[in-house]
Design goal:
The structure is a single chain. The chain is of the alpha/beta class and 538 residues long. Helices cover 33% and strands 23% of the residues. It is built from 16 helices and 21 strands. The strands form 3 sheets. Strands 1, 2, 3, 4, 5, 19, 20 and 21 form an 8-stranded mixed beta sheet that branches. Helix 1 crosses helix 6 and helix 9 crosses helix 10. The structure holds zinc ion. The site of zinc ion has 4 residues, from loops.
């Protein structure tokens, strides 16, 4: 029997229990990290702590189905370029930062907006005007694109490259010289590989900072969707006490090394398992099938409008991708495939289908992340193959990234096919939500508002962008809570509110059933509980 003096009750709440079930004026009681009861107010229970919700909503704490916490944290430590609204502002911020940091041999900045220069083409010479003596490396918010100055191009040997790499694009001026914008690994690696890597101390600081942000947003479970050796080391350093949220690691498969990685990743997973940290798992392999539509690097079935010879880049051949999925699957890894263009999504579905036919049956839960442009003939295949569709709902709005870059590249017809969330739900597909933070804001309440309305914060367009793809409040919460819990193999103890489940809970400042959809984005998380412990209070 639990000692009730250790119990907490959140009373007078509007509680979402899971799959469409709500209770009003209800209580949830938890003790020793586990939910004990949900339902009528526990008036006669002598609980140690009682919190009055005043009618506000209690949800399971959110899951984050796809994010890059260390990228987000490191971005804070570099030159501030992410908030700049123009090239001029980026350059001003760079100049100020460089003057403040004469000791840094490289100036880095992460997360600049690729929509602030025409066609996403950024010139090295613009940076040279403010910093020419030291190499400058800027990463776009999509993390698939780099903008650097002439010094960095020289040090990276980009000027000596003839033509184009097979798996990347060196954007060139009319005279053929590299302009300063590099797209995808094949091109960005020239500079990324020579820039000084972040230290372990910088990384653990970044991870700790990012975790605190998640907790403030009500998130306690995170899929890290891009883990290399350096990211892995930071998790290991913080394990068993230093991790303040639950993480599952997505180890990134490399098309040039995946045969060796099958064994390496098994070792890394065994290392994590042997730690016995209940907050850390490494059961997933991340695969980038393609790039992004706004840069013209997503793999599409029909050519881009602005570049009639290009169907984008796929990082793997179909045969290679199938082989990799098969091999990782055969040793019990879940695959988490970044696939944005309709050709990449079809390749991913094909690889999963062939794998499920040839490998022994198991509860594999393959996930396709972003699922941005799906050919209509492929919609049924998600459910048929048991594929989880991960979306970043904040992207499903008509913002400048869409109107300035993406839709001009793919045209109106394909443009209007993006993010078919409701179409997949109608087909019984499991949907999970995430943010791809720091690519975009991670706050689930903002994502829920967009998923319901398909409008931006100003309520535009009035009918919603592709209104038939809007989903209900309940479906949106399900995607963030139960959907991500299922993706992470954690639904046994998280993702809904019921006796016996972990007390991973979030208390809001509003009753979600009583407010307009756009107001949801302005609602606040008041408290976040992780296994019963209050890890955030506003
Ligand atoms: Zn990502």
């Amino acid at each position: 029997m639990n000692d009730l003096s250790r119990a907490t009750e959140i009373a007078n709440a509007t509680i979402w229990l899971g799959s469409g079930r709500w209770m009003r004026g209800a209580s949830v009681v938890f003790v020793d990290g586990v939910i004990m009861s949900v339902g009528a107010p526990a008036r006669d229970l002598a609980v140690g702590r009682r919190i009055d919700a005043h009618g506000a909503t209690v949800l399971p704490s959110f899951g984050e189905g796809h994010a890059h916490p260390q990228h987000a944290g490191l971005r804070e430590q570099f030159a501030p370029v992410a908030t700049a609204k123009s090239v001029r502002e980026v350059l001003t911020n760079l100049g100020t930062y460089a003057a403040l940091h004469p000791e840094q041999q490289w100036i880095q900045g992460w997360g600049y907006d690729p929509a602030i220069a025409p066609g996403g083409r950024f010139d090295a010479r613009w940076i040279d005007e403010v910093i020419a003596d030291r190499p400058v490396l800027l990463r776009a918010a999509d993390y698939h694109t780099v903008w650097c100055n002439t010094r960095a191009l020289e040090l990276g040997g980009v000027n000596d490259v003839d033509g184009q790499p097979s798996d990347g694009e060196i954007v060139r001026r009319d005279d053929g010289t590299p302009m300063g914008t590099l797209r995808e690994w094949g091109a960005t690696r020239y500079v990324l590989d020579i820039a000084p890597p972040a230290t372990l101390a910088q990384r653990t600081q970044a991870l700790t900072w990012a975790t605190q942000q998640f907790l403030e947003g009500g998130i306690t479970w995170i899929q890290d969707a891009w883990v290399e050796q350096d990211e892995f080391a930071a998790y290991l350093a913080l394990a068993n006490g230093g991790l303040k949220a639950r993480f599952n690691l997505g180890l990134r498969a490399d098309p040039n090394q995946y045969l060796d990685q099958v064994h390496q990743f098994r070792d890394l997973r065994a290392q994590v398992d042997s730690l016995g940290d209940p907050f850390l798992t490494a059961r997933t392999v991340k695969i980038f099938a393609d790039g992004v539509l706004e840069a013209g690097t997503a793999a599409v079935l029909e050519p881009y409008h602005d570049c009639p010879h290009s169907c984008g880049l796929s990082n793997w051949t179909p045969g290679q991708l199938t082989d990799a999925v098969r091999r990782f699957d055969s040793v019990g890894f879940q695959v988490h495939i970044h696939a944005i263009g309709d050709r990449a999504i079809r390749m991913a579905l094909d690889a999963i289908e062939l794998t499920s036919r040839s490998n022994p049956a198991w509860d594999r839960r393959p996930t396709i992340a972003h699922s941005q442009l799906i050919d209509p003939t492929d919609l049924d295949r998600f459910y048929q193959l048991g594929v989880i569709a991960n979306f970043e709902p904040l992207w499903a709005q008509l913002d400048p990234l869409q109107t300035e870059l993406t839709i001009p590249r793919i045209g109106q017809v394909r443009g209007n096919r993006q993010y078919p969330i409701a179409s997949l739900l109608e087909r019984n597909t499991t949907i999970s939500f995430g943010s791809d933070w720091p690519v975009s804001d991670f706050h689930p309440l903002a994502g829920i508002a967009v998923a319901i309305t398909r409008q931006n914060v100003d309520g535009e367009p009035q009918a919603g962008w592709q209104p038939h793809e809007r989903i209900t409040l309940d479906q949106a919460i399900t995607a963030y809570c139960s959907g991500v819990a299922f993706q992470g193999f954690t639904e046994r103890y998280r993702g809904s509110i019921a006796p016996g489940k972990a007390a991973d809970l979030v208390l809001l400042d509003t009753d979600l059933l009583a407010i307009e959809p756009l107001e949801i984005a302005r609602s606040k998380v008041m408290k976040t509980f992780l296994a019963g412990e209050e890890v955030y209070a506003r």
